[in-house]
Amino acid sequence: MTAAIEFDQVSVVFPARERGGAPWRAIAHTSLSVEVGEFVSVVGPTGCGKSTLLNLAAGLLAPSAGTVRVFGQPLIGINRRAGYMFQTDALLPWRTALDNVTFGLELRGVPRTEANERGRYWLAKVGLAHAAERYPHQLSGGMKKRVAMAQTLIVEPDILLMDEPFSALDVQTRQLMENELLALWQAERRSVLFITHDLEEAIALSDRVVVLSAGPDTHPIGEFPIDLARPRDVAEIRLTPEFLGIHERIWAVLRDEVLKGYVQTTT
Amino acid sequence: MSKRPPKLWPWQVALALFVFAAWWGLTATHILSPFFFGEPLVVLQRIVQWFASGSIWPHLGVTLLETLLAFVLGTVLGVAIGLWLALAPVASALADPYIKAANAMPRVILAPIFSVWFGLGIASKVALGVTLVFFIVFFNVYQGIREVSPVILANARMLGANRRQLLRHIYLPSATAWVFSSLHTSVGMAFVGAVVGEYLGSAKGVGYLILQAEGTFDINSVFAGILVLTAFALLLDALVTLTERRLLKWRPPTIAETL
């Protein structure tokens, strides 16, 4: 079966910032795949090129070497089958919550009334039916994330790319959002590539966790299948012995890289 | 719970009355010469007389028409060229030194040239106003486009926006906010263009009226003209604010507005 996303010996080199400086190889010879319907999380120390990996899958960035394949086809330009949830706020501030959710439909030429109907359905699904007419600055951080989730999912992408989408939220809101994401994913079984620096979040959500090395020359250094039963509750599952066992095994690999990354960012 | 802000307008009116009273007191007692500084009562009388007889309207009408045309043309040109240059790096780099030069030049000195080119009618005044308004709007649009959040752009692209849709849904709304902040300044500039143009050569307009009065040392009429111009400049500014509130209701209130 062809994978939803496949990185094949991919490298990314950024030109030097200053004249005469050395170019920065963010990602080196990375091979990684996300199967259809699979939820894969990528964890790694800060600044290791996790977001770069996601931008490659989105087609916002082209690899310097190697190939990215989407359902078997080499990716050229924007990945039309993917939806992207960004780490920072990406809502259009001049559109109401509803108009933000329907934006993708509008771009595809879906008639206004149908788009609004589907938009209201999605807003209700993420629990924001009452906030349709509010502008982003009138929404809380968690509500904005919900709007962003509806905005991404309404166009029914086959692949979901998520870049630490919940990292700015407080713990309670975050666990609520993680459960909502799991419920939505469980129903539709899209392929997900989820980037995070939070190992617990990665284990609680995923089918498989990939650990990246510290940069430069970031590459996967470990892959761990997560065979915890579904459906899961992200708050409860953290307390089970299975979870703790997996956490311990992955952390043993990740710890050294986090230390390396920490040294790099502080020196 | 925040306290209701105290009403400021009675104090603002009081301040205006105080200035007028001081003006009146100083000129009536001849501490300041009424010949040079005018007499506030005569000035007010002159204004009432202008409006009562209707003699001011043709002049005011011409000045306002010039202002409006300069404002609209300058803004449209500023937005169009600002958008174009912000999205075309090569053209922008090419034009950069010339735009800086044209902006640094005191453009009021173009007025005589415009008089020669476009005659003494309204066209030369509009042309002057356009050169003043254009650069303010242009720089704001240019800046606005350059500072569009790259995340919002990437988001729109991922949701399927093509180049034209990016322009319509991302660049234009984002530039609009910047344009509006510049419109307050540009309304004033359009007014300056109209009045200075009239002052330098015309047969109609409030600037012309002021020039005539100055020629006969009629200081009271000069002051009356200035006051009428100021009142209408404030009116235009209020209109811009009103439009701004309607079009930019998505924007969070600024700190000044929430105080």
CATH secondary-structure class of chain B: Mainly Alpha
Taken in chain order, the helices and strands of chain B follow as HHHHHHHHHHHH
Strand fraction of chain A: 15-25%
Cα shape of chain B: globular
Helix content of chain A: 25-40%
Rg measurement of chain A, Å: 19 Å
Overall mean pLDDT of chain A: 88
Helix content of chain B: over 70%
Q: Any low-confidence stretches of chain A, pLDDT <50, length ≥5?
A: none
Class inferred from helices and paired strands of chain A? alpha/beta
Q: Any idea what the CATH architecture of chain B is? A: Orthogonal Bundle
Give the number of DSSP strands of chain B: 0
Q: What string gives the helices and strands of chain A in order?
A: EEEHEEEHHHHEHEHEEHH
Can you describe this structure?
The complex is a heterodimer of chains A (267) and B (259). Chain A has 267 residues and is an alpha/beta fold. In chain A, 38% of the residues lie in helices and 22% in strands. In chain A, the strands form two sheets. A six-stranded mixed sheet of chain A has the order 6-7-8-3-9-10, sandwiched between helices. Chain B is mostly helical and 259 residues long. Chain B has a single domain (58-258), classed as MetI-like fold, CATH 1.10.3720.10. Chain B is 81% helix and 0% strand. In chain B, α4 (56-87) runs parallel beside α7, α4 (56-87) packs antiparallel against α9 and α7 (122-146) runs antiparallel to α9 (163-200). The longest helix of chain B has 38 residues, at 163-200. Chain B starts with 8 loop residues before the first helix and ends with a helix. The A-B interface holds A 58, 60, 78-80, 82-84, 86, 88-96, 103-104, 107-108, 135-137, 151-152, 155 and B 149, 151-152, 154-161, 165, 169-170, 173-174, 176-177, 249-252.
Keywords:
heterodimer, A: alpha/beta, 10 strands, about 40% helix, B: about 260 residues, mainly alpha, MetI-like fold
